[in-house]
Amino acid sequence: MKPVDWITQVLEMAAALAAAPVFLGWLNQCRAWLQNRRAPSLWLPYRNLHKLFHKEAVIAENASPLFRIAPYVVFGAMVLAAGIIPSMGTRLPLVVSADAIALVGLFAAARMFMTLAAMDVGTAFGTLGARREMMVGFLAEPALLMVIFVASLISSSTALPVITAHLASGHVGLSPSLAFSAVAFILVLLAENARIPVDNPATHLELTMIHEAMVLEYSARHLALMEWAAQLKLFNYVCIGFALFFPWGVATGHIGPAGLLVAIPALAVKLAAAGLGLAVIETVSAKMRVMRIPEFLGTAFLFAVLGLLVHVLLKA
Amino acid sequence: MPLRRWWQSAQALAGAPGVRGLGAGSEEWVQAARDVAASGGTLYALWVAAASAGAPHTSVYGAYLTDVGVLVVELALPAGGDPLYPGLEAIFPAASRLQRAAFDLSAVRCSDPDRRPWLNHEKPYEFIRVDGEGVHEIGVGPVHAGTIEPGHFRFSVVGEKVLRLEAHLGYVHKGIEQRFAELPILQGHRLAARVSGDSAVAFSWAYCQALEGMSGCAVPPRAAWLRAACLELERLANHLGDLGALGNDVGFAFGLAQFSRLKEDLLRAVASAFGRRYLFDIVTPGGMALDLTAEAARSLINAVRAVCSETAELRTIYDEHEGVRDRFTGAGRLQPELAARLGVIGLAGRASGQARDLRVDLPCPPYTELAVAKAVQQDGDVAARVAVRFEEVRESGRLLAQLLSALPAGAHAATVDTPADGAFGVGLIEGWRGPVLVALHAGPAGSVRRCHPHDPSWQNWPALEYAIIGNIVPDFPVINKSFNLSYSGADL
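The joint structure predicted for all components is written out below.
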C-alpha cells in the first residue's frame, strides 16, 4: 500500500461523513417535490446536527453506561463501514482487515448496540422499536448476505473492493443474476434504513415507529450521533449498491488526481439518481402493516436466492 | 310500555324539532330506558342540573335518540332523599362514563358499580389489568409526540396484538358548564362555539336553536340557509383534513399534501366570504352575524365545486392504491351489531350501519327542503369510515351548491328576547362528527342556570376501545384517526 492509498482511504471516510447528511437532504427535497410540497433546504440535516451538538444532553436517571456509549459505538461502526465500501477507489488499506461478511457483521453489531440501548431505559416505545428492529434485522441480514454472495461468486472474492474492481473491469455486464440481486438489495436497503414502505422516517406516531422509537430517549449530542449514524448507514447502503451493481466511475488503480476527477463527479451523479429513485419509491408507496414485513423481506431473500441459482445453474 | 306510549305522554320541548320531554320517577326512569333500548333507540346524553334558587330539585336528565324523535326524560331527585339514582350502564354501556362525569361535576351518585372518577384526576386511575403469559401494557399519553389533544391510552398487548385498550380522558376539563352559568344567556353561543373548536358552527347553532325556541324567536329563512351553508362548509373542511391525515397515518404523504392543499383552498374561500377561516361567532342568536353578498356566494360555489371535483379524483387514487387499500380495509372493524349495542352515532355509526343522520331524520329548516342523502356503509372498518367521508364531501358539495345558489331574500338576523326564568330548550344539530346537543336551562334575568353541551364523542370513545381489539399496535393511530373524536368536547 502506498501513501496515496491511505489518502484515498481517509478521503472516502471523510466524504461519507460529509456527504451522508446532504444525501438525506437531497432525498427529502425530492420527496417534497414529488408530493407537491415546497422542499426544505438541502443543508437542513447539517443544521439539525449542528443544533443537536450544541444542546445540553438529557439522560434518563436509570440509564446504564451502555446507553451512553451506544451512540459512539453505532457511529463508529458506520464510519468504519464507510471505510471498507469502495465508493470512489478500490485500493483501500482497511480492506485487508474486513471483507463484505465482516461488513454485514459490523451493521449487525451496530444494530445490537442500538436495540440494547433502546431497551436500556425501559420505556414501552424503546422496547417496541427494538423488537421490531430485530425482526427486520434477522430477516434482512441473510438476504443481504445472499446478495453479496452472488457478486462474490461472480468475482471469486468476498472483499468488496475486489468485487467492484472485477465488475468494473468490463468483463461482466449487468447479468441476470445481478439483476435479481439488485432487486433484492433495494428491498433490503428500504427495510434496513427505515424507509417507506417498512418504516416512516417522518412519522410522529410513536406506536408505528421502528427506528425513531429506538432513539426517542436520546437527546443532544447522543441523538446527533444516532442521526448521523443513520444517515451514514443509508449512504453506506447506497454505496454498497453502487459497488455491486453500478461500479462505473470508481477508480480501480492507484487513485490520483485524475482518478478523483472522474470518481467524485461519478459518485455525485449516482447519488443524485439514487436519491431521486428512493424518493419515487417512497412517494408512490404507503407504509405496509408491520406483519407484512416478513413477506417483504422474504421476497428479498427469494430474489437473492434466484440470483444465486441463475448464476450457478445458468452461469449467467 | 312501548316507546310509542312514552312518546305520546311526553310534551314537545322548545328548540329543535322532534324533541319531547317528560318527568319520571326512579322506576319510570329505568323502564323508559329499557323501552327505548327495546325499540332500537340509544342513550345520547345524560346530565345533572343541581338544585338552585329557581329550581328546588336536583334533576338528572337523560336524552334518547329514537326512531320517533329525541326523548328527554327528567328524573327529579327528592331533596334529602335517597342519594343514589338508578344507573343505566347495564342497558346502555355509554351511560357509565356519562354518569361518572356527572358525579364528578355535581356529586350526584348513581347506583352503578363502576365508581372510578372520570373528570377528576386527583387519584391515579385504576385501569383494568389483563393477565396471562406474555401480556404487557403500553401506556401512551397524555402527552403525545404529535400536536394533538391530551388523552391516555393503556394497551394490553401480546407481541403486536392488542388484547384490550382502555382510554382515560378528562385531561382538558376546563369547567365549560360552570362558565356557561356565568354568562348572559344571549352571549352563550360564543362559548358554545368553543366547546370543540372543529364543530364551532354545530355547537353554536345548537345553542341558538335552543335559545330561539325558548324565547319564541322566528329565525329568518335566509339566516337558516346561511347557517346550513356554514355547517356544510365546516363538515367539508373537517372531512378534507381527516382524509389527508388518514393518508399520512399509513405513510402516504402524497394524500396529506393534496388534501391539506384542498382544505386550505376551501378555508381561504371561506375567509374571503365570511371574513374568518374557521366559522366561529358567525351563528348568533336570531340569525347570522353577517350576510353574504351574491358575488361572494358565487365565488364560494365555484371554490366548493373545484374542491369537490378534485376530491373525487383523489378518491380514485385512495381506492386504487394497493398499499393504502391494504391498510384501510379490515383495520379497526366495528361490526354493526356491536355498534348498535354500544350506541355508536354520527359518522362512525354510519360507517357501521347505524343509519342515523339528524339532517334526514329530524330535519330543521332548511334541511326540510334539501333531501339530504345519508352516507351509510356496513363494513365498519377504516375503509368504511373513509368512504363515508368521501360520500359526505360529495353530498356537502351538492348541498352547498343548492344552498348558496338559492338563498332566500330577506333579513339575515332577527332580534331575540330574553327567555323566561326556568325555561328549558334543547338544540340538536348534525355536526360533521355526529349529532351535537345543547340543553339550555334559563335562569332569572337573562342568566343561564345550566347549559350542557354534548358531543357525540361521548358515545364513540368507548367504541374505539372495541374497534382496536385484535388489531396490531401500529394500526392504532390510523384507526383512532378514522374516528377522530374530540377530547375537548367530551372533557368539557
